[in-house]
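Work Package 4 report. The design task specified in the project plan requires that, given a folded chain encoded as structure tokens, an amino acid be chosen for each position. We show below one input record used in the internal validation round.
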């Protein structure tokens, strides 16, 4: 028997309206017990009802109660959303009234978890709710809305339907070899089916590299020697004095972070300590963190001083980032240049010159604009991508088995592993601990 739960569903603070959400088999009856107005147990679903919340004979607040009846509610349960006046005190008093009258406080994400368990949404739709809330750019918002409308579920369903059909044919061959109307599942028959799915998954995984950057932001490390203008560049991009700028080498001794929205791109900027040989213990720790940032970054902005001849450390940084996704920035264009490179973007961070050229280069290097042509053939987050990789690797094992003429009953094991991994993406097959871990990341009241 499900318990009756409640929680505040709107952000804490002063506002015109707050919403306290209540759900469970007896939710409408229990709210009605503390509501003065129409009998909520007799009103139609999807109605708004004016009245008062009463506790111990006293009015707590003047409210509007939205009534939803199972199974036609967000989580599939009887549900009441109490719209009360905004403000922490009055909202808490409404919540306390419910807690004293048959409800318990909901856990993080418990409403969405019930919606999933009641078949009102799959895992991809549930995740998209939080993605919508945390979206920091237009691409992230559109992608999350698309997933909420089942685009990801339909993408996974396409693969699972094909795999299920293939496994059914294999089972018929194994269990009913005398059935003449069944397809003879041979290695040549399986090969094009599996090869096509492998190719499709490769496309989706490649698309997902770009989409996850667009949706969740690009971790961008600004690196270079001390005093080449890294902090000035950070301040130019952020249009604020976030980093300390001086002509003293080694001023930045740790990483300084900021976030920048460029069109549809969110950059998580990290200004790192200048990389050089140093006997200063604190600065050395900062340099080690800079080297770590290089390894973890999705994009590197390598800042070089074009007013000075490149030295061994500059060359070392060029070699260190050669195979990384990087943009070479020749800073201090306001001074006489001592070197030129056609691959470098020339700017003056001090005088805020070259900003548009740099932004266009960032868009080009990250390839973010290509997401518009992907037609929803991508995944939205790391969990989904990791499971798709797991499914892809199982399918590769099946492909190798087919190419090497391995017994089909053994190949079916790999195909089934692929089927199960895909099911974990949507929640059609899942370990219980996954569901608990996923929904505890949600907000209270969601």
């Amino acid at each position: 028997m499900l318990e009756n739960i409640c929680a505040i569903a709107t952000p804490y603070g002063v506002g015109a309206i707050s919403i306290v959400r209540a759900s469970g088999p007896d939710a409408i009856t229990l709210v009605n017990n503390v509501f003065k107005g129409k009998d909520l147990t007799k009103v139609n679903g999807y109605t708004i009802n004016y009245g008062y919340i009463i506790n111990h004979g006293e009015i707590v607040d003047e409210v509007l109660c939205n009534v939803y009846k199972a199974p036609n509610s967000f989580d599939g349960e009887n549900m009441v959303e109490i719209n009360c006046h905004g403000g922490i005190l009055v909202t808490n008093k409404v919540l306390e009234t419910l807690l004293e009258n048959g409800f318990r406080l909901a856990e993080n994400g418990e409403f969405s978890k019930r919606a999933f368990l009641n078949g009102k949404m799959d895992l991809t739709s549930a995740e998209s709710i939080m993605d919508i809330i945390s979206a920091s750019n237009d691409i992230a918002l559109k992608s999350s809305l698309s997933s909420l409308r089942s685009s990801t579920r339909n993408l996974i369903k396409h693969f699972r339907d094909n795999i299920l059909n293939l496994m059914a044919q294999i089972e018929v061959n194994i269990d009913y070899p005398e059935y003449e109307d069944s397809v003879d599942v041979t290695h040549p028959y399986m090969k094009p089916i599996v090869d096509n799915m492998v190719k499709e998954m490769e496309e989706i995984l490649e698309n997902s590299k770009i989409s996850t950057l667009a949706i969740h932001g690009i971790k961008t490390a600004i690196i270079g020697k001390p005093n080449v203008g890294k902090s000035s560049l950070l301040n130019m991009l952020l249009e604020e004095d976030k980093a300390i700028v001086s002509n003293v080498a080694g001023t930045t001794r740790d990483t300084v972070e900021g976030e920048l929205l460029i069109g549809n791109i969110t950059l998580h900027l990290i200004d790192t300590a200048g990389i050089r040989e140093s006997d200063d213990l604190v600065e050395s720790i900062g340099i080690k963190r800079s080297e770590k940032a290089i390894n973890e970054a999705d994009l590197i902005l390598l800042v070089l001083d074009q007013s000075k001849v490149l030295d061994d450390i500059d060359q070392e940084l060029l070699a260190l980032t050669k195979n990384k996704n990087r943009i070479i920035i020749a800073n201090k264009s306001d001074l006489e240049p001592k070197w030129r490179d056609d691959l470098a973007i020339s700017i003056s961070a001090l005088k805020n010159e070259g900003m548009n050229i740099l932004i266009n280069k960032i868009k080009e290097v990250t390839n973010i604009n290509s997401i518009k042509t992907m037609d929803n053939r991508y995944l939205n987050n790391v969990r989904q991508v990791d499971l798709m990789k797991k499914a892809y690797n199982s399918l590769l094992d099946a492909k190798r088995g087919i190419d090497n003429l391995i017994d089909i009953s053994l190949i079916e094991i790999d195909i089934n592993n692929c089927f199960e991994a895909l099911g974990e993406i949507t929640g059609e097959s899942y370990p219980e601990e996954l569901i608990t871990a996923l929904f505890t990341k949600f907000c209270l009241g969601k």
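Confidence is low (pLDDT under 50) at residues 241-255, 278-286. Validation will be extended to a larger panel in the next phase.
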